[in-house]
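F.,

This is the one I mentioned.
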């Protein structure tokens, strides 16, 4: 377990992440992961379903690190991506502004508007409900989501970006906003790799969709 950060996610988001890990890894895999991360008590005691900010970033960083210890760098990255996507599907799409994106009026908006609003809504959830302050910057061909302190990178040192669960959350949030389209998302800078910020680049053009359609 890494040293406490003093930065927190709300219990509800942490609970959703544990549910996603259970879905992706299974009970046995989750038990092993929690043992690796020295968080065994969470196997039977999930965070409560409330918005109190009590779940330390260090716990999520420890879980992220444990995934790589269990499955290797490549395998751990794949698992973290799946956990992030499952977490969004399980809970984030009912959270705050995301809930309104299933409305027909929202879905009638142009695709570029929906993706921009989807990225902004996810950033707002993190900024308003946790200590993960997140901003969105728009460029000609892509968006950038930037956070100063990612819970998945806290206290970690790596040669490459490690916030793979956040990449998965961003991917799934844009799929939700766009009614099923996939977008390329890459973490280009990461505090664990020595950068000052964690930065996620999102291509505006969906994967496999001609530019005229998007």
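My design for it:
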């Amino acid at each position: 377990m890494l040293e406490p950060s003093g930065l927190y996610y709300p219990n509800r988001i942490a609970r959703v992440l544990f549910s996603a890990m259970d879905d992706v890894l299974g009970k046995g895999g989750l038990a092993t992961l929690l043992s690796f991360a020295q968080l065994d008590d969470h196997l039977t005691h999930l965070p409560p379903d409330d918005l109190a900010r009590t779940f330390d970033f260090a716990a999520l960083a420890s879980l992220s690190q444990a995934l790589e210890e269990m499955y290797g760098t490549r395998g751990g990255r794949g698992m973290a991506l799946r956990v992030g996507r499952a977490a969004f599907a399980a809970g984030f799409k009912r959270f705050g502004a995301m809930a309104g994106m299933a409305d027909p009026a929202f879905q009638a908006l142009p695709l570029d508007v929906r993706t921009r609003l989807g990225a902004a809504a996810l950033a707002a959830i993190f900024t308003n409900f946790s200590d993960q302050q997140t901003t969105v910057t728009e460029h000609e061909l892509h968006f950038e989501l930037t956070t100063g302190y990612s819970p998945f990178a806290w206290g970690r040192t790596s040669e490459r970006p490690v916030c793979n669960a956040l990449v998965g959350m961003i991917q799934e949030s844009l799929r939700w906003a766009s009614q099923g389209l996939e977008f390329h998302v890459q973490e280009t800078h990461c505090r664990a790799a020595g950068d000052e910020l964690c930065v996620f680049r999102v291509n505006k053009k969906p994967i496999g969709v001609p530019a005229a359609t998007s």
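Residues 10 and 53 are 4 Å apart (CA to CA).

Talk soon.
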